[in-house]
Amino acid sequence: MWQVAGYRQVRELGSGASGRVVHAVHEASGTAVAIKYIAPQLLADSAFRERFRAEARLLAGLSGANVVRCYDYVEDGAGAAIVMELVDGVTLRRMLDQYGPMPPEAALLLLKGSLLGLQSAHTQGVVHRDYKPANVMVRGSGETVLTDFGIAVPAGATVTAEGTPAYLAPEQWHGVPASPSADVYAATVVCFECLTGQRPYPESDLDTLSRAHATAPIPVQAVPEPVRGLVAAGLAKDPAMRPGSASGFLAELESVAKRTYGTDWEATGRKTLAGLAGALAAFFPAALALGSGSESVSGAATAAPDPVGATGTQVASPATPPAGPEVLGSAGTKVATAAAKKGLLAKVLASKAALIGASAVAVGAIVTGAVLVGNSGSESPPAQPGSGGVERTEPTGAPGPSGENGPSKTDGNGPGPKPTEETARPKTATAEPSPASDATPEGDSGQRCEVTEYPDGSREKKCYSN
Known about the structure:
Radius of gyration: 22 Å
Helix content: 25-40%
Strand content: 15-25%
Low-confidence stretches: 290-448, 454-458
CATH superfamily of the domain at 91-272: Transferase(Phosphotransferase) domain 1
Oligomer: single chain
CATH topology of the domain at 91-272: Transferase(Phosphotransferase), domain 1
CATH class of the domain at 91-272: Mainly Alpha
């Protein structure tokens, strides 16, 4: 199987119809990266290859702390690949599935980070077109990163209806020219989901969902009163009535947040996100690599984190990777959400600590709401990674497994369904009575147990005193 020269593969992070994403290490610098490989069958599709190159050229100018960075693009007769930043974190999709709604400060900080990422695109005349929780990564520090620009186009381009239906603006269903206001709409849908735990229009049938986006009343009563104006503006049916770009929405968001939740609203929101992300640190790429016990993993993804997308700037003079541990999470963080969240956070911290195990201890420590792991250098690009005889430009987003929120109308990354869901999310049965030989059944004075099943067939059981 073709691989980019100069990189050692660590493990596969995810795969989809358009290709696969692997965690790799640049041999010369030791920098951890993510590499997206295009599916071999798509190399023979001249239209797909041209679209891929066009996306690369389109995205070459994007930059910013809230957009995942690109280090290199490699193409030759044997394959094509994108070398990009390895974001050590989890997707917002996983976080929402695990915890449900979050406090307003955290939801608004997520929206702000996403708007900053979209602003980087909008100022370059690029529309993302597929903003959704699976395309937002949350680092252990609580910062957010926008990924997967796989179907991004220049603003004003005439396009077919593409994207993830649950987050499509009304006009996107009809293939009107792409505009930044459609990204604003999608970001507001995600903010609504963060605030309430559900989307404003949860219908699953595509025709019903399309009509709901176009004509159904905006359910602003479901969100806290201080932010209803923001939600109503972002979800306006008429794109002319929405903020015209991410920049226009940012100022209003910050004004409402500061006025309602105080000048420290960002710090409060970041602590919450750091605590929630830190509790899921077992799914971070760094933790998985430490516990893998193998330098090369091929085939289907196992208990892997969510694949990352790709955008950012073309790297002309890469920096030296930083050294030393990086704090993931926030010590002593209080998760200021529903009462159930505190208990859940404690349980998750206890159970996930066992998954990280001695490998994490070797380079750091787990404390209350905080995880210390060795920094593999993912915050800086490789030192002149390169590859002889290759074209260098900017890539598209990374593939992921299919299935989030129903199928996209068309594939944003070539033939076949567009990857939309994160990989290898475990199934967790909470408070499951354990066998009598292991623990007392629920309701007695003994223990309550949580059993987690992983895609590789392994099971983890943790018991707690009643």
